[in-house]
Amino acid sequence: MQHVVIVGGGLGGLAAALRLRAAGVAVTLFEKNATLGGKMAQVVQHGFRFDTGPSLFTMPWVVEELLASVGRKLADELTIKPVDPTCRYQWPDGTRLDAWSDLPKLLKEIEHLEPADVAGFLGFMAFSAQIYQAAAEPFLLEPFQGLRTMLQPRLLRDVWKIAPLKTVDQAVRHYFKHPYLRQLFNRYATYNGSSPYRSPATFCIIPYVEIAQGGWYIDGGMYQLAATLGRIVGEMGVDIQLNSLVSEVIVTNKTATGVRLSDGRTINADYVIVNADAMYALDQLIPTTKAPNHELACSGFVLLLGVNRDYAQLQHHNIFFSGDYAAEFRAIFEHGVPAVDPTIYIAATCRSNPEHAPAGMLNLFVLVNAPVTGRVNWQREATAYRDLVVRRLEQHGLVGLNQTIISETMLTPADLASMTNAQRGSLYGPASHGLQAAFLRPANQPAGLHNLALVGGATHPGGGIPLVLLSGKAGARWAMQRLGVAEKPKLGTIF
């Protein structure tokens, strides 16, 4: 039996392990932490439960297809449900907009702000759908092979449809008049840690996916996805070794032949799949490679707050916008400092799972986009920035928030870098600024090396649950092709 080693037990590594075991390949998975899931993790403390990774679930059919490939059904393994409203958006002047999956409701919300923007929204969705139809198959759903993929006749014919020469902001301004709606639809660039003022309009594909296909939540918490995939991987016979740090991928004659662990063990392999942060892997794990010199996506400043009262204005997902969006991104990407007036995201999963907080209380996962480590001494500055974020939330209507906090954990970009080996704390690897950075992320198969693949959010096709799972699918396929192993036939269609 041929043997594949997987470095890292995040969603990309778990997806690859499932597919390889289904094809009859022996798999050993090494995870440096005590639990699987990578950036998808959870914290339980003082009666409060928090997801610390992805908070919204899109494209659930990707998980459905993954489970079907190993003879499982999504409905038997997980309970998913739509979140309505998908998100509540709030501005400093008290203006509020609820984003509904029900289109007539959403159109009424938009019309309340700017009647003319109803037509603009419909035009924007048609524009976004055009991008999805042109880009989904070659860039997202199939293994991406760099220049070879980009030179396909279909892509050369349809390249104009993905609007690569406009920025997200320019496209949004074309369709929307109201500044708040422009801010709302610019926000989607932050789904991959980038600035809407510098990312190509191709990333307007993201609101199409969320609005047209829906935003979902996994009952029990988003971490249930990682826990479920980990359980199935174990049931299928993958050798899972937790608390096992891989220090090096062994390369012999330009071919990956195994890994070396920090405890000195050497494990031979016929193929190696690395689910660590791609930039870290290229610089630290693979001796013959170097990470590209790309600008990094932003990091995050996180507060896990257990509060002893309820705030009725909060939904499951909430965004409190800053007063000057452009200034916020200039601070993060040009000056490398946290914004003094940040946009603040809050997830209160107890709105969907009341057991995540004691009765009458809330579990608040608070996230602010922050610069990667470099100019800021977070050990010195973190407490002051925490106080600023809490004050801003109080100004947005969460009156007396600071006095209601009875459980608190703070995570800075420096903490995230240490916990996940993400380069300088970047949550998504390279920023998607400019055409080249958007489509030429670190290659899934490093040039000049054999029997090695990179999967995860910092490589192609990008961050977020479905894209990371698709990268795992691509990694497993390349391994099977190289090893001459036939992929197990699909057990049914999901389309």
Write a concise keyword list for the protein shown above.
19% strand; globular; alpha/beta; 495 residues; five-stranded parallel beta sheet; disordered C terminus; FAD/NAD(P)-binding domain; Guanine Nucleotide Dissociation Inhibitor, domain 1
Question: What's this model, at a glance?
Answer:
This protein has 18 helices and 19 strands. It is α/β, with parallel strands linked by helices.
Write the topology of this structure.
Layout: E1 3-7, H1 11-22, E2 26-30, E3 42-45, E4 48-51, H2 60-68, H3 74-77, E5 80-82, E6 87-90, E7 96-99, H4 103-113, H5 117-141, H6 147-150, H7 153-158, H8 168-175, H9 179-186, H10 205-213, E8 216-218, H11 223-235, E9 239-241, E10 246-252, E11 255-261, E12 266-268, E13 271-274, H12 278-285, E14 299-307, E15 317-320, H13 325-335, E16 344-347, E17 362-370, H14 378-395, H15 401-404, E18 405-411, H16 413-420, H17 435-439, E19 452-454, H18 465-483
Parallel strand pairs: 1-2, 1-13, 2-9, 6-15, 13-19
Antiparallel strand pairs: 3-4, 5-8, 6-7, 10-11, 11-12, 14-17, 14-18, 15-16, 16-17
Helix pairs in contact: 1-11, 1-18, 2-18, 5-8, 5-10
Domain Amine oxidase: 11-477
Keywords: Carotenoid biosynthesis, Oxidoreductase
Cofactor: FAD
